[in-house]
Amino acid sequence: MGQCGITSSKTVLVFLNLIFWAAAGILCYVGAYVFITYDDYDHFFEDVYTLIPAVIIIAVGTLLFIIGLIGCCATIRESWCGLATFVIILLLVFITEVVVVVLGYIYRAKVEDEVDHSIQKVYNGYNGTNPDAASRAIDYVQRQLRCCGIHNYSDWENTVWFKQTKNNSVPLSCCKAALSNCTGSLTRPMDLYSEGCEALVVKKLQEIMMYVIWAALAFAAIQLLGMLCACIVLCRRSRDPAYELLITGGTYA
């Protein structure tokens, strides 16, 4: 019965190491996605420290690939030293992912305050005639999130750009995508997106942070199982050095 348990643990451990390689790619993808999306919204979000969870998760993804290699070699060769190293590294990565989850929740809670603090300044700096990076960011967000203004399209009336143009219209990025003849005029509010951008930007950034949190939690659970299986193999090996090898089916002497 014990022999069956140890063989099963080793088989599961090898399978988990293959999952670690897949996890490495997924975690790096999640981290890269956060960076790319943040770049689209960075004018609305001044605190660069919110990228820390993404940086950590990319580092963890890279480390997981190495861990998978160490784990496979150590499990197949029945190396006590290799398995012990594998467990220690997994434990450190597990702790790191717990830190990622905590930081993710902290920064997720700060998103609304950060956006609220910076969005008014970004809209006041809009320059539609000679658009800079911030102006392009506003147009991008309004088109992508289908929104207009901070709370609604009337917020544009308080901007410097609106007062300078004096044409009683908002940027064309406020126009509903289905309308080809929209001019952005406030005399036709039915042509404009009615929802403000602030709430949608906050929601989008919080969703991004949740991707990081859920990815970290999912792979932390897998690593916990990996540590459990490795510990079973280590304990059995230390108590009984003569048990079945995984690849030969023979006796380890």
From TrEMBL:
Gene3D superfamilies reported for this sequence: Tetraspanin
Compartments, record wording: Membrane
Primary localization class, coarse: membrane
Superkingdom of origin: Eukaryota
Keywords: Glycoprotein, Membrane, Transmembrane, Transmembrane helix
The keyword Transmembrane helix is annotated on this UniProt entry: yes
InterPro entries, per database record: Tetraspanin/Peripherin (IPR018499), Tetraspanin_animals (IPR000301), Tetraspanin_CS (IPR018503), Tetraspanin_EC2_sf (IPR008952)
GO cellular-component term (any): plasma membrane
Topology relative to the membrane: Multi-pass membrane protein
Ranges that cross the membrane: 12-36, 48-71, 83-107, 208-235
Family: Belongs to the tetraspanin (TM4SF) family.
Subunit record text: Interacts with claudin-11/CLDN11 and integrins.
Function: Regulates the proliferation and migration of oligodendrocytes, a process essential for normal myelination and repair.
Annotated protein name in UniProt: Tetraspanin
Source taxonomy: Eukaryota, Metazoa, Chordata, Craniata, Vertebrata
Name of the gene this protein is made from: Tspan3_0
